[in-house]
Amino acid sequence: MTALVLTPNERRAHRAAAHHLAPVVTVGSDGLTAAVEREVDGALNAHGLIKVRVFSDDRVAREHMLAHLTSALSAAAVQHIGKLLVLWRPVPPKAATEREGRSPGPRTVKVVSFSKTGNHRATVRKVRVMGNERITPSGKIKRREARSVSPKKTAAD
After folding, report:
1. pLDDT tens digit sequence for 109-144
2. How far is residue 14's CA from residue 89's CA, in Å, rounded to a whole number?
3. What count of other Cβ atoms lies within 10 Å of the Cβ of residue 133?
4. Which of 44, 73, 122, 146 could bridge to 89 as Cys pair (CB 3.0-4.6 Å)?
């Protein structure tokens, strides 16, 4: 795989976005192992922009680690400052989950009804609304769609 190349403007924007981030992966005394590469790959899939802390005093070794990570994971090197490496890779689109197309679960909603005269305090009720229900402007709970009727029952009538 090849490393991504960033324009100076893109690099500047990613550096600014990475400023407040904490290091997600740390490279210890064993160096860059296969397990560390898997962790960096997983973090890039999840976040896109990450910091990696390297506990090595050798600057040349850190530069080799950065070059190896960018080429092996097809990522872009945003910054190498001190013992921190900043990497970026576009986040892949998420796969559709099994909940796609299903109604939402139950939720608790506050229904506020004001007094007719305006002299009294408004009453607040907490109502649990299921996924197939809605609240009308008057505060009543109704089904979102009318209940389907069996064709056998309509033919019998």
Report:
1. 888 888 888 788 888 989 898 877 888 888 888 887
2. 11
3. 16
4. 44
